Amino acid sequence: MDITSRAGKEARVAMEMAIHDFNAKMGRNYTLHTRNSKGKIVRAIRKGLSWLVNKFQQS
Predict the structure, then answer these.
(1) What is the pLDDT along the chain (59 residues), one digit of tens a residue?
(2) Which of 20, 1, 17, 19 is closest to 9 using CA atoms?
């Protein structure tokens, strides 16, 4: 997400609030990892998917 834009900032806050609420209700401690896509959405999706694949392969 482009965190320099207003929409990006609002989306990040909404996601952080959702993670906080989920953690509180479920007794979990998940963390939201974000990076600035600088408007390059396809690249951001590729990096996110790559991160997920690597995470699951390590477990």
Answers:
(1) 778 889 888 988 999 999 999 999 999 999 988 888 888 888 888 988 998 898 888 76
(2) 1
